Amino acid sequence: MDSILFVCLGNICRSPLAHGVAEHIVNTEKLGLFIDSAGTSDWHKGESPCQHSIEIADQYHVDISQQRSRPVSKEDISLFKYVVAMDRQNKADLEAFGFEQVYLIGDFGNYQGEDVPDPYFFDGFEGFDKVYTMISLCVEDFMQRVKNGSL
Ligand code: 4NP
């Protein structure tokens, strides 16, 4: 089964949203794809996604509350067919770790290579809607390309 790993720094704000949106697409379209997410750091290992991410996903009927943060591992390198970073620093860190082909989520959905803003430093809930919109549009486009084999 083909598999996709979404990666950010802490695996508590951005990549859990990408993971949830992709899983939602897999479930509704009954695709044979395994979806997971991870962090380039282990700072939040074992933690649930941040409350604001859980809340914004919930508004779009995507449940990410059962996800738990984990750091990327060497096994992920051979395990996942597609690895997708949320920003350019994540991509550089993944490449330094040994991943060979790392996609940038902002290269999809007409975002022209933009980084997904790191909402960890946002002041409260404001901004999470914008982050969700960007992630969902980019993930939808990415999944479309996985499905039609144009990546
Ligand atoms: P994420 O956000 O990479 O989208 O999960 C962050 C989470 C935690 C930290 C930074 C970004 N942190 O510095 O602990």
Detailed description of the structure:
Helix 1 (14-29) packs across helix 5. The protein has helices at 14-29, 51-59, 74-79, 88-97, 128-147, and strands at 2-8, 33-39, 82-85, 102-104. The protein has one domain (2-148): Response regulator (Rossmann fold, 3-Layer(aba) Sandwich). With 151 residues, it is α/β, with parallel strands linked by helices. The longest helix has 20 residues, at 128-147. Strand 1 (2-8), helix 1 and strand 2 form a beta-alpha-beta unit. The model has no long low-confidence stretch (mean pLDDT 97). It has a four-stranded parallel β-sheet with strand order 2-1-3-4, sandwiched between helices. 4-nitrophenyl phosphate binds at residues 8-14, 43-44, 118, 120.
Please sum up the structure shown.
With 151 residues, the chain is α/β, with parallel strands linked by helices.
Instruction: Please report the number of helical segments.
Output: 5
Q: Helix proportion of residues, in percent? A: 40-55%
Low-pLDDT runs of 5+ residues are none
Strand order of the largest sheet: 2-1-3-4
Annotated CATH homologous superfamily: Response regulator
Could you name the key traits of this structure?
binds 4-nitrophenyl phosphate; single chain; alpha/beta; globular; Rossmann fold; 4-stranded parallel sheet; 151 residues
List the helices and strands and how they pair.
Layout: E1 2-8, H1 14-29, E2 33-39, H2 51-59, H3 74-79, E3 82-85, H4 88-97, E4 102-104, H5 128-147
Helix pairs in contact: 1-5
The structure holds 4-nitrophenyl phosphate.
4-nitrophenyl phosphate binds at residues 8-14, 43-44, 118, 120.
